[in-house]
Automatic annotation (TrEMBL):
Superkingdom field: Archaea
CDD domains documented for this protein: AAT_like (cd00609)
Organism: Methanothermobacter tenebrarum
Protein name: Aminotransferase
Cofactor: pyridoxal 5'-phosphate
Subunit structure: Homodimer.
UniProt similarity note: Belongs to the class-I pyridoxal-phosphate-dependent aminotransferase family.
Annotated keywords: Aminotransferase, Pyridoxal phosphate, Transferase
Annotated Aminotransferase class I/classII large domain residues: 33-374
């Protein structure tokens, strides 16, 4: 019999005017004037060291060799150092947090297990879990009472005897909510008590005012998902990792996809990024943080709109426009026509997608100002 795991497929609907999702992304990618606020990527990476390291590597011609299958040890160690998880942990290099998430589901989900996630949230995690036969309990968190996040209490209320994983995206894509130390400790206690795993996706960690790692409190139950796409501005290079203790790493290594190693050029760039991070991180964080204020001012001018989580602890936020009667799909489409790429709520929510747009702001200040002006203008036009 064919395993039911093979049956879950994610249907992707292209935006209006495009034949396929691929055609749409090619269109936005190729348009050099497009203001890129739709993928939480970081466009403030004008420090040269990473580029230069990669150019040197290309010149050396060493890219004709396969790199070691689990990653260059130098990079593996730098990631652990970056997280302050030196002793007792291992890291595995992957082609981005996305591959790390996939490997986690592949090795930890058995048919019939359940996983707790949040809505809004990063739906790719749910889709991967379903592909391996999981039942997904997507907890509704779009309200002030829970501070727009999956709280320990909400997690407890939704655990059943099949729950295998609690997925914590911290800070949360799309809202930018994040966890306190006490909350992370409580999740660690829950994991011990209920015999389950924490998937701690820390992709946006470096944008948060403060951040706490579940791996420090529940090392033997936490899988930490790591990405170079956001703070390091390396999304197109597709590089990331997964960090856990050696016993938990074994099942991940058993389902490895890139058996011949992850892109060597990207690893060289990633090594340089971590070695130089102290020089540029403050600048990227500060500009990102200040950009929020420009957006907030514009939102405050448009009656009926608000930012659910402000300030955001990530480099993205949601703007709720529900009370204006304007649909997020229309607003997104009109902004795109004006060369501003943001995402409609349905990209990160099955239940609240008709309420908000999501936009990221690790981009130059001038571009954020263009968004702000167009947001005010288009909201006036669309609601009339
Ligand atoms: C929560 C979260 N995890 C993982 C990823 C994927 O990151 P990567 O580019 O490293 O695959 C994203 C990308 O937007 C994300 O928002």
């Amino acid at each position: 019999m064919i395993s039911p795991k093979k049956y879950h497929k994610t249907v992707k609907i292209p935006p209006n005017g495009f034949k396929s999702i691929n055609e749409f992304f090619n269109h936005v990618f190729k348009d050099k004037e497009m203001i890129w606020m739709g993928q939480n990527t970081n466009h403030l990476n004008d420090h040269n060291e990473i580029k230069e390291a990669m150019i040197e590597f290309i010149k050396s011609n060493e890219y004709c060799k396969y790199p070691p299958p689990e990653g260059f040890p130098e990079l593996q160690e730098l990631i652990l150092k970056d997280l302050g998880l030196k002793n007792g942990f291992e890291s595995l290099i992957t082609a981005g947090g996305t591959e790390s998430l996939y490997l986690t589901m592949h090795s930890y989900i058995e048919l019939g297990d359940s996983i707790i996630t949040s809505d809004p949230g990063y739906l790719i995690i749910e889709n991967f879990a379903r592909r391996f036969g999981a039942k997904v309990t997507s907890v509704h968190i779009y309200n002030k009472e829970c501070s727009y996040k999956l709280t320990p209490k909400l997690a407890r209320d939704n655990i059943d005897n099949k729950t295998k994983i609690i997925s914590l995206i911290d800070p949360l894509n799309p809202l930018g909510s994040s966890y306190t130390k006490d909350e992370i400790k409580e999740f660690a206690e829950i994991a011990e008590e209920k015999d389950l795993y924490l998937l701690h996706d820390v992709t946006y960690r470096d944008f948060a005012k403060k951040h706490y790692l579940a791996a420090k409190y529940a090392p033997e139950r936490t899988l930490t998902i790591y990405s170079f796409s956001k703070i390091c501005g390396m999304a197109g290079l597709r590089i990331g990792g997964i960090i856990t203790v050696p016993e938990m790493m074994e099942p991940l290594k058993a389902v490895i996809i890139n058996d011949l190693g992850t892109n060597a050029l990207s690893q060289i760039g990633a090594i340089k990024a971590l070695k130089t991070k102290k020089k540029w991180i403050k600048r990227v964080r500060e500009r990102t943080y200040k950009n929020q204020k420009i957006i907030k001012k514009a939102v405050d001018e448009v009656e009926g709109t608000f930012i659910p989580v402000y300030p955001s602890n990530a480099n993205m936020m949601a703007i709720d426009i529900y009370d204006t009667g304007v649909s997020p799909d229309d607003l997104t489409e009109y902004l795109l026509k004006r060369k501003i790429f943001v995402r409609q709520g349905s990209y990160t929510s099955r239940f609240y997608g008709n309420r908000y747009i999501r936009l990221s702001f690790s981009i130059p200040k001038e571009q954020v100002k263009i968004f702000a002006e167009n947001f005010i203008d288009l909201m006036g036009f669309l609601r009339s």
